[in-house]
Design brief:
This protein has 288 residues and is of the alpha+beta class. The protein is built from six helices and ten strands.
Length: 288
């Protein structure tokens, strides 16, 4: 039987991973990364290496509820079958939610128009093993959520956020278009969400590390704003722990996946006995 000429495909993936035991998304020598795990699984199936391209590069220890990536492939496996094929070979801390064909000029990174992150705090004094991998257990001082929200609100818009940029980035500038930023308390849990066109290297964790000082009263609202407006990077001392951060979702003008695949796939934690224990003036959750 003669060989049949197979058309090249570009395959998009929606990916979840627990970042705890990964040194981030991007492949690194002698370190376990999400990109390497998926590329290794693909190579085992097709017999050669092919690179995958992600929408964003999460840091070591950061989770993802709906990371997006793509790769090119020529062969008999239909694009929509790749999720099941890869899941049969991937470790337990990586999962492909879905796969789909995309046009050859579609790019997981460059076609994206926004990314959204969530940071979660757990403020009860008693630790809890079942949420420990996904939260910053911060119970030392009470946190004023409306004050934290007041600090976040001026960030919405186009701003130069060099104060929240770690060293080592190759990006040529520090301008960021922030679409939305808010805090919301649910019992002993506080969720912070921020959506932007893109994020600087280490931006969310540095921002959260300084924002918590506003919430606990150690830093004034005016000083927080002054530091980022005047790009005083040297005054931003601490980054929040990676485990509380999750890449929540990525937005595209034409996304080939149904909403159920990529929208809010990291569940909110909730303790029933605390549901009505806290009240504040936090904004209600709204989603694009």
């Amino acid at each position: 039987m003669s060989d049949v000429s197979l058309a090249a495909q570009r395959v998009a993936l929606v990916i979840q991973y627990l970042g705890t035991h990964f040194h981030g998304w991007q492949r690194q020598p002698a370190k376990r990364t999400v990109q390497e795990e998926i590329e290794t699984a693909i190579a085992a199936i097709i017999g050669h290496h092919t690179p995958i391209h992600g929408a964003g590069r999460t840091d070591s220890g950061v989770h993802a509820a709906a990371q997006v990536a793509h790769f090119n492939y020529t062969g008999p496996i239909p694009a929509h079958k790749w999720a099941a094929v890869l899941n049969s070979r991937l470790p337990d801390d990586v999962l492909i939610r879905a796969s789909a064909p995309v046009p050859p000029d579609w790019h997981a990174r460059f076609s994206a128009i926004w990314r959204r992150y969530r940071y979660t705090f757990y403020t009860h004094k008693r630790p809890n093993l079942f949420i420990h991998p996904f939260c910053w257990h911060y119970y030392h001082l009470p946190l004023n959520v409306p004050l934290m929200q007041a600090a976040l609100t001026p960030l919405v818009g186009r701003h130069h956020l060099a104060a929240f940029r770690r060293a080592g980035s190759k990006r040529q500038h520090s301008w960021v278009d922030v679409h939305e930023a808010f805090c919301h308390r649910q019992g002993s849990l506080i969720n912070l969400e921020i959506q932007a066109s893109g994020f600087l290297y280490g931006m969310v964790r540095l921002l959260v590390g300084m924002l918590i000082e506003v919430g606990n009263g150690k830093r004034s609202l005016e000083n927080f704003t002054e530091i980022w407006v005047n790009q005083q990077r040297e005054k931003v001392k601490y980054a929040a722990p990676a485990k509380g951060l999750c890449l929540l979702r990525v937005g595209y003008p034409d996304f080939p996946f149904p909403k159920e695949v990529w929208f809010d796939t990291q569940p909110f934690f909730q303790f029933a006995e605390e549901e009505m224990s806290y009240t504040d003036n936090s904004p209600q959750l709204t989603y694009p």
